[in-house]
Amino acid sequence: MDTARFEKLSETAWQVPPKGAMRVPAIIYATEDLIRDMDDKVFEQVTNVAALPGIVRASYAMPDAHWGYGFPIGGVAAFDADEGGVVSAGGVGFDVSCGVRTHLTHLTRADIMAVQQPLADALYAHVPAGVGSEGNIALDDHEMTAMLAGGAGWAVEQGYGHAGDLERIEETGCQKDADPAAVSEQARKRQRREMGTLGSGNHYLEVQVVSEIFDEAAACAFGLERGECVVTIHCGSRGLGHQIGTEFLREMAIAAESYGISLPDRELACAPIKSEVGQRYLGAMRSAINCAIANREIIGHLTRQVFARFFRHGELPLLFDVSHNTCKVEMHAVDGEERKLYIHRKGATRAFGPGHATLPEALRAVGQPVLIGGSMGTESYVLVGTGEGEARAFSSACHGAGRQMSRHQALKTWYGRQVVDELRARGVIIKSPSMRGVAEEAPGAYKNVRAVVDAAEAAGLAKKVAKLSPLICIKG
Amino acid sequence: MSDGRQREAKSARWEHFPHGADIGVRGLGPTKAAAFEQAALAMTAVMTDPAAVGHDEAVEIKAEAPNADFLLLDWLNALVFEMATRRMIFGAFDVAISGNRLEATARGEAVSRERHAPAVEIKGATMTELRVAEDQPGTWRAQCVVDV
Lengths: 476, 148
Known about the structure:
The complex is a heterodimer of chains A (476) and B (148). Chain A is of the alpha+beta class and 476 residues long.
């Protein structure tokens, strides 16, 4: 994108003042270089979101923003129900509550490298990954309803995970006001055999070593030590969330006109929060959030089972679990007034700063861990929410590297085997059912994640704590 | 083949087109139904080579929508649903369209990690670049981006 289309507010904040149908400004947090690399569609989408009814303060894009569906991926927008605000299925996306969790292992790099290959093989065999893989957990309709209402708390009750994990998950592992009755039969059917599965595409399970510390105090509070290893899991609400996204995008796109909403792009499909379809979507979407966090809790449990075979101390305490594709009700200060807002984060991470009342006691003084997944085989980062992030973008930060090359182009550029061999030479084991999938997710197909997190830090959205480098990657 | 990811079969063919994070599927054919069949083949090709998929099992699909665009969306999403819940992959399609109603048979087999090595799972067909149009007399196009 041409930066001349923006007003420069600072080195990492660029604004489009309201014009035409825009009700509020659009603001992108990124460096000039990152903006130049962004698709023009990001400009179109972030300004389209600014035109939606009831939007508060601004339509935001994070440093990793790229062309999404209606909203840019990396888009953040808040809506006030009392001002005609909307909830948008497009603003949440297909993979509801896709997110990342990181478990500590307190094992050293040498501990992992001593068993690197058998550990990689065991994780690959034990955690179902890829298209057509099935979990060992089949849910009947009654159990499905309990899972959709209970989230990670349900998983723990079933014996998958530890009660102590729950305070380390957003909303303590259960999104309240979920309405399992709003989840269709088709969505339930798609999920019946998918609990505890990783999925495919950019979803992964990685064993990583803490290779750099940027903030000693925050790292200490998070339990991160240089040279120690962690396990990071990236996946979402699986078929259930995809089906809910599919159904409500269609329904809202068709119904928008009846609510007097003119959509500049059908993918912005939305409905007033105070409408029947809006409420039904919120109930279904919250159920899908519970499905995603239950799924990640189960995968965490499967990971612990594998580690227990190799190491006597296979506890793997949970550092934190964040969700990327959500609409959540949060209180935020707007012009000095506390307001109840519906915060859409599409490919963006919630990033509460120090002192936030909802954070567990051990983290409250420091702030929320913000887990940023890099591309396969490159580095990932742990950041921490900042106090100023509230004013910047309703306490939100980037979520990953963001693609810079289409799958189409990636396939023309790399062979999967070549990617696996190159990473192997650098000490990283990749396990995947599909070499074509590996080629499509080649590290070079993504932006430089370091540039993205540096921009997030410079913009005050979140602060760097630690860098994580992969040793084993199980790719779906 | 224009770019290695395009196949021709008589006058009907499919192709992929790029999208930032995902991938576009496009079917072209002499009729709307043929374009829909080719769009479905293009979607299978996002996962694996359609020619490598057997035709052992047939699944009947019906859809009805307010217009042709939504009918394509519903057709592709019905296939996504059937593939996900039956753990199948489809390699051949017969589509009949009457007004805004579709009746179709999808033929395929159980998905195999070894033989098909599917690259990605399709989360859903989207309204991005969604278009069904008769570009020239006797040349139909049916396309959209699929989220993977």
